[in-house]
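REVIEWER CHECKLIST
Item 1: Sequence provided? yes
Item 2: Single chain? yes
Item 3: Sequence as submitted:
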Amino acid sequence: MPSNFLTQLQSMTESHGLLFGENTAPYCLDQRRRFQGQALAVARPKSTEQLVELVKLCAEHHIAMVPQGGNTSLCGAATPDSSGHSLIIAFERMNQFIEVDADNNTITVDAGVTLQQVQTAALAANRLFPANWGAAASCQIGGALATNAGGVNVLRYGNMRELTLGLEVVLADGTIWHGLRGLRKDNTGYDLKQLFVGAEGTLGLISRAVLRLYPLPTAHATALIDVDSPAVAVELLRDLQAKVGDRVTSFELISRPCLDLLKRHFPELQQPFSPSPAWCVLLELSDGGNSEQLISQLAEILFDAGFSNAYVAQNQRQAQDFWRLRERIPEAQRIEGVSIKHDISIPVGDIPRFLTECQNELIQQYPDANIVAFGHLGDGNLHYNLFLTEKTALIYQFELAINAIVYRLVAQYNGSISAEHGIGQLKKQSLSQYRTATELLMMRSIKQALDPQQLMNPGKVLLDLNQQID
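Item 4: Structure as written out by the authors:
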């Protein structure tokens, strides 16, 4: 154990900011309980200045740093390896700074501020911060930026990348890059902030961010619609966008196995369909003005399009009930048991063909497969998960073979093996297979330039830099 490093670490960090031994356990296990590691300690800085001191000390002693922002990663991006030689840097105490600029429609926050806190601060200023997903109460902005997180409103507002105007980043040598600019136009050379959004802490540690805000919508219309097939869902999406434009805020596709899981594990949730349809769409429109008018317009569009089994929420409570169905799907899957999960993106028009072809191949190889498909159809992002009902205890033995089928078809349709969850540890081998040698070389060159000692979240995103690129 590097006793000199730990002695200096303790001297610069107040006792409640540094954790050792069994107190580090919650930080060493990922949310899905797939990855477990060990760490020298967990450091919890309260400011950028403390963070700089930590990074400089780690660089001096060649200690790897694993940043962690809420520990909600689904790919093991915030979990250390098993060596016990790294320092976890948790951002939970860097949560003091929140500044809203209503005139500029921006909010500037510390990296440890949670998504829910940002949403609440924006609402207090009569503004909207549109990023929204299930872990809003626990995920932190630094982690959301590091994975370029998405959510249900990406269709209209974009991922975290599109919601970010400026960053403050502590680089691998402890230098601060001061990029906290709230500008929508800044054409002075390379857009450096984009290097760090989605990099999962492998290039530098995000300490603060300037994020976009939007006018707060006053009108909402939500509907849950029985659709015959994903192809019909795509047609509905295009029809809606032609008629109401970017007021289509969310457009979610949900398969019958999702509804079956909800009935089994959350029977108290009311489902309007009986029997459950093969596919349904949950959508929301938002705008200024009056909700009653928007609800009436949506109902008229659905009626004219021939959707006889469609439920348009007549009030906020009904809308929340519809959204609760979508939000509880991941939890229902967790209760059901272990599954092979895929977070993929496909060009929207190709999704129906992908779903048919992928299911046919998987069922042919695994007749007991139960495919739970759902996700953000509007932006082409599917959560495509597979249970093996007769082999649940052994399912990870089949993971590589299942992934090979899914990812081959994703590549065939020019899609991506990671839409919003990142790469982390889980997909770094697959990344090396589904990105070109030129792309990987460019990524490695950037990594080498910004982190020459390879101390920033090693073992994530990219394979070992010494490994040859095929």
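Item 5: Key structural point noted by reviewer: The two ends are 36 Å apart (CA to CA).
Item 6: Recommendation: ____
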